[in-house]
Amino acid sequence: MIRRLSILAAAALAATCLTGAPAMADGPEQIANGTFDTTTEPWWHTGNLAFDLDGGRLCADVPGGTANPWDAIIGLNDIPLVKDETYAFTFFATATPGKVAKALIQLPVDPYTQYLSANPELSVSGNTYAYTFTSPVDLPNGQVAFQIGGSAEPWRFCLDDVSLKGGAEPDVYTPDTGPRVRVNQVAYLPKGPKNATLVTEAVGALPWQLKDADGVTVSDGVTTPRGVDASSGQNVHSIDFSAYRKAGEGYTLTADGETSRPFDIGGGAYQDLKLDALQFYYTQRSGVAIDDALRPGYGRPAGHAGVAPNQGDTAVPCQPGVCDYTLDVSGGWYDAGDHGKYVVNGGISVAQLMSEFERTKNAPSATPVGGLNIPESGDAVPDILDEARWEQEFLLKMQRQDGMTHHKIHDENWTGLPLLPHLDPQKRELHPVTTAATLNLAATAAQAARVFAPYDAAFAAKNLAAARKAWAAAKAHPDVLASTSDGNGGGTYDDADVSDEFYWAAAELYITTGEKEFKDFVLASPHHTADIWSERGFDWGHVAQLGRLDLATVPNDLPGRAAVRASVVAGADTYLATLRQHPYGVPYNPPTYDWGSNNLVLNNMVVMAAAFDITGTLKYRDGVLQGIDYILGRNALNQSYVTGYGEVASKNQHSRWYAHALNADLPNPPVGTLSGGPNSSIQDPVAQAKLRGCKPQFCYIDDIESWSTNELTINWNSPLSWISAFVADQGDGAAPAPPTCEVAYTVHGSWPQGFTTQVTIRNTGAKAIDGWSLTWSFLGAQKVAHGWSADFTQQGATVTAAGESYNKKIRPGQSVTFGFNGTSAPGANPTPDLFTLNGAACA
Ligand code: 9MR
């Protein structure tokens, strides 16, 4: 706000749309930021404008040569209107040179019904304008729009002190946090850690009781006072009831006169979550009809498949002046609750799905993901890869002939809610190519080249060629950055530092090909040895961790690989230390929580899970099991962030098509959908109205309009699905038995078409092994051609060799040896990291 004499201009009072005397300006203020003191958030503008925060005013240079008022708009969404309430709408505005603008309060979606329409005559010195209107509707998401297009000449518009007073008092929002004993509302593993948090004023330890479904106390103890927790501002105690190990349903925990929400002790729920979190992707698909038979209640016509009113995605032009061609960029997943498709966000999502699959090849105890009930189910390819391919095909389409890759494709302007994908009438546009997008394509295509190789050689080859081309293009254009202001109609996903993207891409290319160029790049990158395990963790804009994790967990011959593996373990130690200090057991505790904090928590858990896969050391696994407690209810809000999991769970995530909160005919998000979770910056109006001054854990509201705290995205469900698979793999939480076998796998020779390998299994246990089958996986499309001294079967990259009648017995301390000739395949052929004998990992 600029200080000025506040005189209501006579001209404004005479303005056309007065519906009576201006209301007394004493109703509640509905506009969270009308003064522009420090920010223009959460106001938006059409793509032909840019905001300029000019001395406490919001200003914009309006281009000349547009035809209609609505060709340039500055707007604010999500203003609640109450039927029959009278509102006073006032603002100060200037125009240089003078102009007539349109000021509207309206429905944000077609037919854009106008409840107030004014035509203020703006001058260079500026005036304050005042109008009143009575709302004919109850509407949670009214829109303020200044339409400033239609001028032949360019001009400058400035706005300040926008106020809409009247209607309902904004709620004094106090979340209903239920009982003060906070638990994982879904399930603890019987033999895993079991921790809870008590919110209390008490300073000294208090007794607790664990009760079964009949209310019988089955265990008790005393709390551990933990003082005031910075992330919630609450005085808390922690409760450890790990010693109780009996599976069952409907347990509760009582302390300080409060009884927790119910929970199970058992692993079954995680088998469901493992599938649900992945099934999320099918209903995010663009370009194809969603089959209601596969997802009852979620069927819908194909979105953006080149059919009106959609204006895409089969032949999408660039933003004006960006390119002179169109691309078919149909398919892929919608990024989030909007209809945009962004390469850097798609990149990490598809990478994490492929990594979830690769983990089943390389990690002890990881079991394949079952059927996802998608159209491709029943083909010869694992469903998780079929789903990943849906996105990877789209990423490939975003690549230009020269290898550079478009950053994103989305609507020209933001659309309102609700809006099913097939009804989106907005113009679709390709945005400029960027180095970050190009490197995301290089990384994911390199990974796809190895994981798809056993199933589809042509697709694998296409990916490898695209990855190489992208790598070369990024090297030639290393600093083409996404614009920080290209955020109209879609997210900016800007990133000023792409050195981590270079590292990730080089790592994936090296793992897949084993080639020197990529090895040298990896070894020379500062990200290879830096401490990249920051408290904040990793996400779409911080991807060095993806490279380091894969170098550590996917077999390869990188010099110094042991140190790479040790560095992941060191990262896990950092997160474990954070978790142990945190009275809610969260491996994330920065002073402010970032946008999508739940995905950052989950990604830090991925690092601990990888450390467990590498070392077998239980404390890392237990860190993951405690982390999931936070996501599923052991938190300050006493709620689960996964739809359908836990007695109280997020269900109104910001989405244009799971918009049940706005249209009862539409569904809520499917079960297994993660909400982004607490975000200290609360950029959206709902959060700003209700959560101002929030402590980090309280910066969340399960409101469909709270896009900055409560959205769903493909890159948030990807760590959820990775982690839920990991937790499901822990069964009842029993510690894996120590290995009783050792394997020596020696490639004695290789030639262009093949290689010959000898494998020795030694029984290092105390008992005789009577009948064995040994399993390992190749990196890519290598195949056992013929073998000796064992029976071989192969599925995809995974080989099982079973003892024959004469060598099926291995006495303690003894060994058997068998061998095979393999068929070579493009790329590297490293020694597998993992050998599993009769289902248990060997040393
Ligand atoms: O997840 C993104 C977050 O990391 C950024 O800070 C934020 C602002 O740029 O954008 C988030 O991504 C949103 C994107 O811009 C548009 N689609 C929905 C995404 C999730 O809220």
From TrEMBL:
Residues 734-843 form the CBM2 domain. GO terms for molecular function: hydrolase activity. It comes from the Bacteria. SUPFAM superfamilies: Carbohydrate-binding domain, E set domains, Galactose-binding domain-like, Six-hairpin glycosidases. CDD domains: E_set_Cellulase_N. The active site is at H654, D702, E711. Keywords: Carbohydrate metabolism, Cellulose degradation, Glycosidase, Hydrolase, Polysaccharide degradation, Signal. Residues 1-25 form the signal peptide. The keyword Hydrolase applies. InterPro entries: 6-hairpin_glycosidase_sf, 6hp_glycosidase-like_sf, CBD2, CBM2/CBM3_carb-bd_dom_sf, CBM2_carb-bd_dom_sf, Cellulase_Ig-like, CenC_carb-bd, Galactose-bd-like_sf. Pfam families: CBM_2 (PF00553), CBM_4_9 (PF02018), CelD_N (PF02927), Glyco_hydro_9 (PF00759). Its EC number is 3.2.1.4. SMART domains: CBD_II. It catalyses: Endohydrolysis of (1->4)-beta-D-glucosidic linkages in cellulose, lichenin and cereal beta-D-glucans. Belongs to the glycosyl hydrolase 9 (cellulase E) family. This is Endoglucanase. It comes from Microtetraspora glauca.
